[in-house]
């Protein structure tokens, strides 16, 4: 493991991540990636510690990824799913979190459909003076930092597997395509990618693109944003032109009922990524998607499965290594 | 670990618990509490044993507490939740239990909305001549012994953390306030607290207080009850006067639909515990609640969060230590 | 452990199982059965490996059995239940499987209500050139190989506990009674039992018996079937006459709504197994049922609980040992 000093106690947002922090995560994830290629994929780092997955919003993919990551660090895991919980008995979210604290939880991984819930729980833990760390696993339309970091790791370790570092993205052109407005994944990626020195191009129908970026990104945070490297487009083509990487976003079908979109077919025609449209990009362009994918909507089915272009499976694999790194940093600070 | 001889194979009720048993639990829980304060919170006591949580009634809090306790004893845990089970396929409860027995379960932790289910399963296990232990994690309105024991441990270890023992409660005045009639928590606490030599004062609206105590506590058990130390009140004030501890109970909102209560607001006015009402008690009075709490109903929100008075978080922490002790006693008897 | 060479990478069907494979499973299960009788029931065989239970169709019994088996081999387990999954978000089953692959799953245990899903996933894994093994835990009305193998183990280890082997069934008469047509359990058992050299007698009402056996068993597979040892009956009696073992099948109550059956009462009268009807069989006949049982429908309640006749609990216990053997074979091939 690298000997980087890590001072962040909770991981809630990428808005104020430093270059040193990004690189610490990338470097540590790379060494865990190596652990995962061994036959025995476990390390004793978090033995005896309890990682509670408090998922107030259902998720199989992200919860399983955190669960595998925690188990490979030898932690004990607890799963809380809101559906079967005492939440239905009217307890507040903070009380639920404090109950898990009192039971001896060391790290809380929290997903909630409302923005700000992990932050509120982290504040309460700090106010109580306890050592519990909170990791935001997706809060409403706000942020999904571990997804942003795993996307970053996927890209950087493609460029230099041995020494993935954020500087590798300097000057690269990255397109993010789809429902930017409602996407916590897009928001976390905008922070990490602009911090890397990449040029970030957002493409979406006008109804799915934020009008006021300062507001979208949070007034207090927007200073950190290297806004000169952020561009928005109402068409796909200018975003794709000469792009090195294309990130497509999942289209929530609920957006249609809200009349923000004409039809899935038209959306696919205009913003769906296909092999043909990729011809506008650099020749060795790669495509990412946070999953789960609506095949034939945001990306064509054949492209998704094409190992020449698609990094989608690598993202999932990177997710375990990156989450191990995050749990390692916030978990071993508690000595 | 203490070297007390433990003869009880199942833990179903506190009605016939002896002073020696109470003290064995308190003393062992205290040593596990110490284990939980270490960085590595695991002991190998139940390695290779299987603890099955058979929760026919949903519960996150109690199930998680038992799950952490089992994992910290290095047991393997299985969770069964009725919602997704073959129960919907018409299998009987006893057959479900026997299936878990046949799979090699060593300890069954059982919750059911009907009183007597854990007892029935324990009897069946004994009839079959197998070594499986049954732990009642709440059966209908009957008992919740691990809750009674963790409340006892919370109080006793507040008085003497190094040597918590039931004799410490001799002569203390303890008020139990709320829906006594329908509460399995109250029933288990009445057994342990009256056995301790404390004076127990029950306060509730007439509709939520049992009329016939022998019947309420079970005809065969009532001899054990030190009834001269049990008092009932239709008002809150006489119960609170000079009390050392106040236990509030969760108010099931279903009671309202059954016309047993006028309104939540009126209930809070009459029986809700507030800082102001606590002035009737001893100056260093402490408040307990089994959780989850309806803030502003059975207890005011500020009082619940006040570390000067509230033991609610300590109860949750005690729960893990006490459940480790119970699993230890019934689990290690099986050599 | 036996030193048998095992070449099968996935376990999807018993149609093409060889005698050597049956015996390797029986012998290995016998040694794990011995492990399970020890106080510490764990072996380190699959330490650091991940077994994912992907249950697209809910099941408590089979999922718990695989989970215990995996934990006793020291594997880490992940549970996926379709109800709370991203499946509801429109992802395909193959994409879900590939996500678990990318997270580092070593063995996928798959149940689905459609026949062929585990096969399709196994094919996809092979196409991708990855080492992941797929174990069919029940696919529609097709097969349930681990159930067939545990039934075989239950019977063979009754005859010779020290050396269970398929040859022990040569010349035995085995009746399978009930809803053959829709039963994946029956289909798997027909393959193993006819391969053993036993005489297999199927008894069911005409509406629940397949008309065309080649089609029922799969055209390509039917050559392997020793059809001369397979007999069908529309009445129970000829199947029971001199039988050594009687396997009853669970009656899905949905069959009634589909007008395939007159009434539960009439079904029980005609095809329900009772002590009285067993008088037609060999004196030491034994009864099996895959569970969960509808007491008083396919088997009388008293017979089910009679240790003289019933092997139902032994089947559940055998299930853990047999599944440990299967996970051992497909898991340790991945060196």
TrEMBL record, chains A, B, C:
It catalyses: carbamoyl phosphate + L-aspartate = N-carbamoyl-L-aspartate + phosphate + H(+). Gene3D superfamilies: Aspartate/ornithine carbamoyltransferase (3.40.50.1370). It comes from the Bacteria. Residues 10-155 form the Aspartate/ornithine carbamoyltransferase carbamoyl-P binding domain. Carbamoyl phosphate binds at residues 61-62, 111, 144, 147, 291-292. The keyword Transferase applies. Residues 170-329 form the Aspartate/ornithine carbamoyltransferase Asp/Orn-binding domain. Pathway: Pyrimidine metabolism; UMP biosynthesis via de novo pathway; (S)-dihydroorotate from bicarbonate: step 2/3. InterPro entries: Asp/Orn_carbamoyltranf_P-bd, Asp/Orn_carbamoylTrfase, Asp/Orn_carbamoylTrfase_sf, Asp_carbamoyltransf, Asp_carbamoyltransf_Asp/Orn-bd. Pfam families: OTCace, OTCace_N. GO terms for biological process: 'de novo' pyrimidine nucleobase biosynthetic process; 'de novo' UMP biosynthetic process; amino acid metabolic process. GO terms for cellular component: cytosol. Its EC number is 2.1.3.2. Catalyzes the condensation of carbamoyl phosphate and aspartate to form carbamoyl aspartate and inorganic phosphate, the committed step in the de novo pyrimidine nucleotide biosynthesis pathway. Heterododecamer (2C3:3R2) of six catalytic PyrB chains organized as two trimers (C3), and six regulatory PyrI chains organized as three dimers (R2). Belongs to the aspartate/ornithine carbamoyltransferase superfamily. ATCase family. This is Aspartate carbamoyltransferase. It comes from Anabaena sphaerica FACHB-251.
């Amino acid at each position: 493991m690298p000997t980087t000093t890590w001072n962040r106690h909770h991981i809630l947002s990428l808005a104020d991540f430093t270059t040193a922090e990004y690189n610490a995560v990338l470097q540590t994830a790379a060494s865990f990636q190596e652990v995962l290629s061994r036959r025995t994929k476990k390390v004793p780092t978090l033995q005896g510690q309890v990682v509670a997955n408090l998922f107030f919003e259902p998720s199989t993919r992200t919860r399983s990824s955190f669960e595998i990551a925690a188990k490979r660090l030898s932690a004990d895991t607890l799963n809380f799913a809101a559906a079967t919980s005492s939440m239905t008995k009217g307890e507040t979210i903070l009380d639920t979190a404090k109950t898990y604290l009192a039971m001896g939880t060391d790290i809380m991984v929290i997903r909630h459909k409302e923005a700000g819930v992990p932050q509120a729980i982290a504040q309460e833990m700090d106010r109580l003076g306890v050592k519990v760390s909170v990791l935001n696993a997706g809060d409403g339309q706000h942020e999904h930092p571990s997804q942003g970091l795993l996307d970053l790791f996927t890209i950087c370790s493609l460029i230099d597997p041995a020494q993935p570092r954020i500087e590798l993205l300097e000057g690269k052109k990255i397109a993010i395509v789809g429902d930017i407005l409602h996407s916590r994944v897009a928001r976390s990626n905008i922070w990490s990618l602009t911090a890397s020195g990449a040029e970030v191009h957002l493409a979406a129908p006008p109804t799915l693109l934020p009008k006021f970026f300062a507001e979208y990104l949070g007034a207090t945070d927007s200073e950190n944003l290297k806004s000169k490297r952020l561009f928005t487009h109402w068409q796909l083509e200018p975003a794709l032109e000469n792009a090195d990487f294309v990130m497509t976003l999942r289209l929530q079908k609920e957006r249609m009922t809200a009349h923000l979109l004409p039809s899935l077919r038209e959306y696919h025609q205009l913003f769906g990524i296909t092999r043909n449209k990729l011809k506008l990009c650099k020749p060795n362009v790669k495509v990412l998607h946070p999953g789960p994918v609506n095949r034939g909507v945001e990306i064509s089915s054949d492209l998704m499965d094409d190992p020449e272009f698609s990094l989608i499976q690598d993202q999932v694999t990177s997710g375990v290594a990156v989450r191990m790194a995050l749990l390692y940093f916030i978990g071993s600070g508690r000595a």
